[in-house]
């Protein structure tokens, strides 16, 4: 979808779609799970825990970082990452708001 078409949607919908895209790959979900389980910045060991190449993990981390769900620093050959809990909470709240909005239209009987 072109940028001009995207701008015709509300900012809330654009943000929700952006966050949803960040969570749309199982590797990115697994990376977030690993970061949450460690409860600290994770350096390098993510590659050892996933059945993916270093370059693939790096690309997913880059996507998560650009999307704002992960914070990280790269120092030479070492990279350290952690979850941006504020951004993840924002996504959670946005998704719940959207779900509740949809629920308003739910009928007792299903049409299909």
TrEMBL record:
KW DNA-binding (keyword) present: yes
Listed InterPro entries: ArsR-like_HTH (IPR011991), HTH_ArsR_DNA-bd_dom (IPR001845), HTH_MetalResp_TranReg (IPR051081), WH-like_DNA-bd_sf (IPR036388), WH_DNA-bd_sf (IPR036390)
Originating organism: Leptospira ryugenii
Alphabetical list of Pfam families matching this protein: HTH_5
Keyword Disulfide bond tagged: no
Transmembrane segments: none
Record domain HTH arsR-type: where: 8-103
Protein name: DNA-binding helix-turn-helix protein
GO MF terms held by the record: DNA binding; DNA-binding transcription factor activity
Record keywords, A-Z: DNA-binding, Transcription, Transcription regulation
